[in-house]
């Protein structure tokens, strides 16, 4: 028996999330269909986590057990030639039998992207939130820093979350700004990054919706600690649309590879 690890990138607009569903198109469903074509076996993959409908990934990780003897270096070409064009395997490796893409993960990073210009970018509009008005970028950057540390993130969790504890540790949260082609200091492309040991249902999108309100001048950066301490979903901002969210990277401790 072999344990194969893979990294996959996908644009999520056409899918009802990552996790397989009986009748709806999903990323997992497409991958498992191709694995069956290649191996002749019904294989269930184990992913580092789920992404919702319309959410994307650059660095989603999954693994699966197989008796197939396909060489590691052949998997990527074989799968990419059969997968839809919006799903791409970017890395393949042989993993120890006890490696689990979810339970072995140490850190995950998400990115939320906002395009603050007068007109949308035709070529990236499917992977970012379009915001036609300027934003207070320095205030947004200050607000992002308040999420770092161990906190109870109840204020930033969907009521649909089923986790027994809402305490999570955020290692880093920061903003990167690509200046506007117009030279306007409060326009351009804004990326919100957040790295933690785990995330609650809709947590990053609620954080993004709250930071967007800071950028709009509806909230001040120093309100973020108060919102966290309130442990009340009604105190935070709206859930930002899914198209701007991307699972950016999943990190392990190095023992995931033979």
From TrEMBL:
The lineage of its organism: Bacteria, Bacillati, Bacillota, Bacilli, Bacillales. Formation of pseudouridine at positions 38, 39 and 40 in the anticodon stem and loop of transfer RNAs. GO terms for molecular function: RNA binding; tRNA pseudouridine(38-40) synthase activity. Belongs to the tRNA pseudouridine synthase TruA family. InterPro entries: PsdUridine_synth_cat_dom_sf (IPR020103), PsdUridine_synth_TruA (IPR001406), PsdUridine_synth_TruA_a/b_dom (IPR020097), PsdUridine_synth_TruA_C (IPR020095), TruA/RsuA/RluB/E/F_N (IPR020094). It comes from the Bacteria. One of its GO terms (biological process) is tRNA pseudouridine synthesis. Residues 8-104, 143-253 form the Pseudouridine synthase I TruA alpha/beta domain. Substrate binds at residue 110. This is tRNA pseudouridine synthase A. Keywords: Isomerase, tRNA processing. Homodimer. Its EC number is 5.4.99.12. It catalyses: uridine(38/39/40) in tRNA = pseudouridine(38/39/40) in tRNA.
């Amino acid at each position: 028996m072999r344990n194969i690890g893979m990294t996959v990138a996908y644009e999520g607009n056409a899918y009802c999330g990552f996790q397989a569903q009986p009748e709806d198109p999903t990323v997992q469903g497409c991958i498992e269909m191709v694995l069956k074509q290649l191996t002749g076996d019904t294989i269930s993959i184990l992913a580092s986590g789920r992404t919702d409908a319309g959410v994307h990934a650059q660095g989603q990780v999954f693994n699966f057990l197989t008796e197939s003897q396909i060489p590691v270096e052949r998997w990527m070409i074989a799968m990419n030639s059969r997968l839809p064009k919006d799903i791409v395997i970017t890395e393949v490796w042989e993993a120890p039998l006890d490696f689990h893409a979810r339970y072995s993960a140490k850190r995950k990073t998400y990115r939320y992207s906002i395009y603050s210009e007068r007109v949308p970018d035709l070529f990236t509009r499917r992977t970012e939130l379009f915001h036609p008005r300027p934003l207070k970028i320095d205030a947004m950057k200050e607000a992002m820093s308040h999420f770092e540390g161990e906190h109870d993130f109840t204020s930033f969790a969907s009521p649909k979350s089923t986790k027994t504890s809402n305490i999570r540790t955020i290692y880093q949260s920061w903003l990167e700004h690509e200046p506007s082609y117009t030279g306007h200091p409060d326009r351009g492309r804004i990326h919100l990054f957040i790295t933690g040991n785990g995330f609650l249902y809709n947590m990053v999108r609620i954080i993004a919706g709250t930071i967007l309100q800071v950028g709009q001048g509806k909230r001040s950066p120093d309100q973020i600690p108060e919102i966290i301490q309130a442990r009340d979903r009604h105190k935070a901002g709206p859930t930002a649309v899914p198209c701007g969210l991307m699972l950016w990277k999943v990190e392990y401790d190095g023992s995931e590879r033979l």
